[in-house]
Amino acid sequence: MQTSTVVELSRKNVSYQILTEEHLASAIECLSSTFQSREPMTQALKITLEEFKYFAEILLKKAVNDQLSLVALDKINGKVVGVLIGEDFVTEPPERIETVSSKFLPIFELLGSLDEAYKQQYPVESGQLYHIFMVGVYKEYAGLSVRLIKIAESIAHKKGYVGSIGESTGHIAHQINTKRLGFKEVEGIAPVYYDDFHYEGQRVFTEITECQSCRLVFKEYRLTN
């Protein structure tokens, strides 16, 4: 198991480490508070902080075992200030995911439709694509998401992954992915427009106004690293 610091950044006294059990409680708090307060779909569905914490705990416990996720730590107080959940793109869902609030189901369906569209058009096997699933950073540490993703991609590349894939759910995330990190929208995979998306006959994302759609983005390592 890899638990040592991967890289250190003097700015704001932040270090980056592979997610381990010791980080779990602080990582749950960071991921939950950042997503519940800022992620468009989470806000539109009125997912509560406690509901998100339960969901985050399930995800992060699997992430600890997978050893493909990172945390950014404030070296002064030891607090997790940023979290990146990374996984194999064809990994199995975490145990107990079916026990989370039903409010999450539209999110699962929307993201799942993009991922399945990719797999049908571009067959992929385990060990090929690194899925950047979630990245959450406290506002006062803005900018760390770029560093988290770059370090995570470096680790994934060394493990034999040939590229990264992810879903841009908001405008800022999409700008970071495409303008600063070199991702491109996947050719042949149409974005899912929030205003047009239906779940069980209901347009559940009409409250989202900051961005129009969720887009699948991809980066091939051998062309960028």
UniProtKB/TrEMBL annotation:
The residues the entry assigns to the signal sequence are none
Tell me the domain of life. Bacteria
Q: What InterPro entries does the database record attribute to this sequence?
A: Acyl_CoA_acyltransferase (IPR016181)
- This protein's name: N-acetyltransferase domain-containing protein
Single Gene Ontology MF annotation: N-acetyltransferase activity
